[in-house]
Amino acid sequence: MNYIIIDLEFNQALNASGNEINYKLPFEIIQIGLIKLDANFNTISTMNSLIKPEIYQTLNPYVEKLTGISMNDLSLSKSFKEVFNDLTKLFDGESVLCVWGVSDIKELYRNTLYHGLNVSQLPKLYINVQRQASNKLNLKKGINIGLSSATEIFDIPTSDNFHDALYTAEIFKKINSSNSDEGSSSSLNKLISPYSYNNSRNTEPKTKLDKDRLFNQFEKMYSRELTYEEKSMIELAYKMGKTNQFQISTTKQKN
Predict the structure, then answer these.
(1) Half-sphere exposure of 101 (CA within 13 A, CB side)
(2) Fewer CB within 10 Å: C terminus or N terminus of the chain?
(3) Which ranges carry the Exonuclease domain (predicted)?
(4) DSSP assignment, residue 226?
(5) Considering the entire predicted model, what is its pTM?
(6) Taking Cα atoms as reference points, which of 93, 87, 89, 92 lies closest to residue 105?
(7) How does DSSP classify residue 246?
(8) pLDDT tens across 186-199, in order?
(9) How far apart are the two ends of the chain, measured CA to CA in Å?
């Protein structure tokens, strides 16, 4: 079994009015970082590829500040289809995707479908390393530790850039190493046992947002007129919510 530690970066619409959200692909992948580990958690290969955007061709300033990626970097990069071809070459044998939160695997499948590529080439099994780290630290259900905090707790040296599969890989190895030290092989197997990803393709909504009614409702609630900035924020929040990007499962999973 191989473990594919993957980290994705996304670009998105600038705002609700100036650059409309594409509901079929609200978050466009612009970078894929990857570390491939063997069954003993040794690094086999790595990958770090920028992707030229096709939908949101202006880089969101928040994304640029967060990642340090520039539009000039992206304009000289490969297309998603080209990078996807490079990516799938690394999925040999039984591969398990390891992600920091399930949003990365959701968007990987969604971007793949959008570009008309074969999702069957992607691993179906995955491990949410963030959830496993939170479980290891005995955090309450629904509370997930951040990557920066996790590196401190697990004593992993870092630089300023946390947008890298390296740290997820190191935490993954630390968790499994600590379990091995406990001398319980069953505990180790229980921890790293992957789930099967159930992909459900998002479709474009069949209804249209009635912005006037939405804004009127807020103005009634707060007994005042909304500013232009407030209307933009409300509209954007509504549209982002429709993408289901921030939904979490309430179904109890067996650990």
Answers:
(1) 16
(2) C
(3) 2-181
(4) P
(5) 0.74
(6) 87
(7) T
(8) 344 444 678 899 87
(9) 20
